[in-house]
Design brief:
The protein is mainly alpha-helical. 68% of the residues lie in helices and 0% in strands. The longest helix is centred in the middle third of the chain and has 30 residues.
Length: 71
Amino acid sequence: FKKTKARQILELLHKALSAREISKTLNVSRNSVAYVKESYTSAIRTGRNIARKIIGMLRNENFHSINLVLL
């Protein structure tokens, strides 16, 4: 399958390349690298926050139902 630029950026970030090195390698701007990195980091944080809320609700003995709405 064809890799998207975002996936390629994430792979190079994982290999600890700098934003400048990634931008030169993939012919994208450093702003694009920063945007992909921030988007990925934000998604990870959001996922962890949702997991913490669910665990907290499950630990509560008085809950009757869990309504989880993902936007």
